[in-house]
Automatic annotation (TrEMBL):
Database matches in PROSITE patterns: TATD_3
Keyword Membrane among UniProt keywords: no
This protein's name: Hydrolase TatD
CDD domains assigned to the protein according to its UniProt record, in alphabetical order: TatD_DNAse
Lineage: superkingdom: Bacteria
GO terms assigned for molecular function: hydrolase activity, acting on ester bonds; metal ion binding
A Pfam family matched in the record: TatD_DNase
Length: 277
């Protein structure tokens, strides 16, 4: 259940490009979560595959008949990069042949927390870049506190890979401009709804061209801090995406419907999906 004050229908269809719906917190009420997302005017979502279990479970979910069209990604999160080996590479490659699996990732570099060594992270990321180049699938990238290395590696691969999105971008201006110079897409979450740590993003989001911006919840993480009602359990969910779209619209000085239309068109083009509108 969402409190009434949080039920908000987007004036135009939205696509959540990053939802971790295989997270255990969604196990009990997934059908309700999907129903609420449909009521909020979400027409599609891309489920994030971050390890063997979530790649499998996400791909499986895309097969179901659901009120919102589901797609998924297949990759290894940099936190788990130490586990990357040939067997996992084959598993990811095999998963990428599934019709519901639309991107390579999430993959990338995260130096914020040293769950895997930077050397392991670069090795695993390189393998994902190679898979994306070979399969021509778009890339779903994760980067935290590693902008410089990320840019270096992407520059080397730019001519070989297709479209790529830096999901949940939280970096600085220089890094953002570096990504835009490489013609990357940028994913924005509820991070920028946080007046304390998201202030720089509220200013930077204005600099992202219309045709390069996509939006995501990254649920169950990153619950927006400015919601008009408290949420028991503080679990973020796709039905709350319209609040993020509204905040971005406010920062950019445009209407909510404009943000919905452009981000949805971008997601459809990027992932090659045709969500009903
Ligand atoms: Zn991520």
């Amino acid at each position: 259940m969402l409190p009434d004050a949080l039920c908000f229908q987007s004036p135009a269809p939205l696509i959540d490009i990053g939802a971790n719906l295989t997270h255990e917190s969604f196990q009990k009420d997934l059908d309700d979560v999907l129903e609420r997302a449909a009521q909020a005017n979400l027409t599609a979502m891309v489920l994030t595959g971050t390890d063997r279990a979530s790649i499998d479970a996400s791909a499986e979910m895309t097969r179901r008949d659901t009120p919102v069209a589901l797609y998924s990604t297949a990759g290894l999160h940099p936190h788990h990069a130490g586990d990357f080996d040939d067997s996992l590479r084959h598993f990811i490659e095999e998963s990428l042949t599934h019709p519901g699996v639309v991107a390579v990732g999430e993959c990338g570099l995260d130096y914020h927390r040293d769950f895997s060594s930077p050397a392991d992270q670069r090795r695993a990321f390189e393998a994902h870049l190679e898979m994306a180049a070979r399969t021509r699938k778009p890339l779903f990238l994760h980067e935290r506190d590693a902008g410089s290395d990320m840019l270096d590696m992407l520059r080397q691969w730019r001519d070989d890979i297709g479209p790529a999105v830096v999901h949940c971008f939280t970096g600085d201006k220089q890094t953002l401009y570096g990504y835009l110079d490489l013609d990357l897409y940028i994913g924005q979450t509820g991070w920028l709804c946080d007046e304390r740590r998201g202030q720089h993003l509220r200013e930077l989001v204005v600099d992202i061209p219309d045709h390069r911006l996509m939006i995501e919840t990254d649920c169950p993480y990153l619950l927006p801090r400015n919601l008009p009602a408290k949420l028991k359990g503080r679990r973020h969910e796709p039905a709350l995406l319209p609040w993020i779209a509204r905040e971005i619209a406010l920062c950019r000085g445009v209407g909510e419907a404009d943000i919905a239309r452009s981000t949805t068109a971008n997601a459809q083009r990027f992932f090659g999906i045709s969500a009903a509108t």
